[in-house]
Design goal:
Rossmann fold; Elongation Factor Tu (Ef-tu), domain 3; 3 domains
Length: 429
Amino acid sequence: MAADKPHLNLVIIGHVDHGKSTTVGRLLLETGQVEEHIIRKYEEEAKEKGKESFALAWVMDRLKEERERGLTIDVAHRRFDTDKYYFTIIDAPGHRDFVKNMITGTSQADAAVLVIAAPEGVMEQTKEHAWLAKTLGVNQLIVAINKMDATQPPYDEKRYEEVKEEAKKLIEGMLGYKDVPYLPISAWVGDNITEKRQLSWYDGPTLIEALNNLKVPSKPIDKPLRWPIQDVYSITGVGTVPVGRIETGVMKPGDKLIFLPSTQPKGVIGEVKSIEMHHEQIPKAEPGDNVGANIRGVGKKDIRRGDVAGHVDNPPTVAKSFTARIMVLNHPSVITVGYTPVFHCHTAQIACRFVELLKKFDPKTGGVIEENPQMLKSGDAALVKIEPTRPMVIEKYNEIPELGRFAIRDMGQTVAAGVVVDLEPREIK
């Protein structure tokens, strides 16, 4: 039974075509989640289409459109078990158009596997994904140096060491991650997932061992309930069923919840009738649980993705404005007052306006180098004041970090990421 083992949410990130979906497929196969014959069937289909190496990836990419395009579009959830943990695996898209889906996926993860293809090494997107994982609060990382079967010569230890050094500079040097395992793997062949096989020169953990070495983060159950909504379903004979991951607090049947900002100025209130996870009814939902709950008194049209539910006596905060500390990762020109990109926070995606640039910091020391700067560019760290263009729930990072961090996207890329230092709540009329 799933509940007997500790649960971890795992996200697989990395550059497009570096083998993320194949790694997921291989993990599911090696842990007995997918039968060999299903993989065989996929392999035959893939061969006919001349896309043989996609067979394992298809385990995750069941959407027809994704098969035709050979890309991962939405964030898929699958579970698998090791002898120690029960994992929900979030397969995050690596393709450029899809980074925004990846942000929603990554912000739900307890740990990440960063997949880097050995022949290519660290690419632009490898950096972007690693930065995002760090900013979005994913504190545990495993680096899988994949496609070792495709190095010249195959399984070349020298190439593994080169890529490892390159990755280390980014992961430990720039991002400050600690205790990161670097493992050579071949997801396609199945090397070093559960057994070393061709990689006998390597003496570290296999991928499964590295996953078993992860730690379960302590659950913030003593904090107020915050449940960002990912989707809302209307199920015949049941009623309105919002779905999402509990970030903080505990939810039980009988609880009275308020959904904010919702379609009503004061939010909408409903009662939890029952809670389901992985198609089983559960007596309560805790942080990290991806659940659906049947809510009495709320219609499907009342709530939408990006709303957050909390208990009526401690509702989520709807911000009129907020002050944030941001890091500009990648902006083609400069950021000035009036700039209005899209902020991705928990499951919300809302355009927000920069109303004041307050301070510029030295990113290495954190010291203030300029008060009220005129503009910000790539590489700058700053304190800024932001106004959402429509109501959004966001919290102070030091109170509820899970809802206090965000990524900023514009022109198809992540331009900055940050955390909320302070906020001015909206007055509810």
